[in-house]
Amino acid sequence: MTTDRESLVRGLLLVEAVCRANPGPVSMTAVHIVAYLAEALAPVWGLESHERQVLKRAGSPYFPGLQQVVDDLICRGAVTVVHYDPSMGKHTDLVANATIDLVHEVVQPAVELAEQFSNLRDLSHLYLEVALAASRAPDLGRLVALDASYSNPTVSLNRLIQLGTGEPRGSAALAEKIGKLLNERVASRGEKISLYVGHLVRFASRRDD
């Protein structure tokens, strides 16, 4: 199945942001988790979620369309597979146990071209803000388990989580509230995301103590 151009560009910007925030090869699990957090927090950035819903799983979030995009980027020579364990992900919807890296000489011109368009530049900045904030977590899976939308007890496993459209809800709404706690000034959208994800990181760390 051929990936449409918009999805291909979005996927490229996402992987580039995750790799920039985490120098060196990154896991596909990390890519899916950053994608989820970016989708959930998109309203904070003034954007609508591209994926309107995601299946709540016991493991990490998984976007089949995103996996297809990354596979396509690999075929196009923009992304390379550093390690792959075929025992995971095969014949299931689980994220494959794979680590990937960018082919920078292929990716960089495409990213620079995409960022000339304001909507794609905004998206790229959102991905990077989320990826940088999440990179502080020793265990990304714990962040998702604590996320306001993913941990919502009214949504059981194997049910769909509704992501941000219109007014902020769930994760985005909580990020907005946390942003209002700053004294004497209004938090920027980047600060709101950093504060929210930082809150998840600190809470996860306390639970490990």
Provide a descriptive summary of the structure in words:
The structure is a single chain. The chain is mainly alpha-helical and 209 residues long. It has one domain. 52% of the residues lie in helices and 10% in strands. It is built from eight helices and five strands. It has helices spanning 5-21, 28-41, 64-75, 104-114, 118-134, 140-146, 170-179, 189-208, and strands at residues 26-27, 53-55, 79-85, 97-102, 160-162. The strands form two sheets. The chain has a three-stranded antiparallel beta sheet. The protein has a two-stranded antiparallel sheet with strand order 2-5. The N and C termini lie far apart (46 Å). The model is unreliable at 89-94 (pLDDT under 50).
How would you describe this structure in keywords?
mainly alpha, 209 residues, three-stranded antiparallel β-sheet, two-stranded antiparallel ribbon
Q: Give the count of structural domains.
A: 1
Radius of gyration: 17 Å
| Strand numbers in spatial order across the main sheet | 1-4-3
Low-pLDDT segments: 89-94
Can you summarize the main beta sheet? 3 strands, antiparallel
Number of helices: 8
Task: Write the SSE topology.
Elements: H1 5-21, E1 26-27, H2 28-41, E2 53-55, H3 64-75, E3 79-85, E4 97-102, H4 104-114, H5 118-134, H6 140-146, E5 160-162, H7 170-179, H8 189-208
Antiparallel strand pairs: 1-4, 2-5, 3-4
Short description:
The chain is mostly helical.
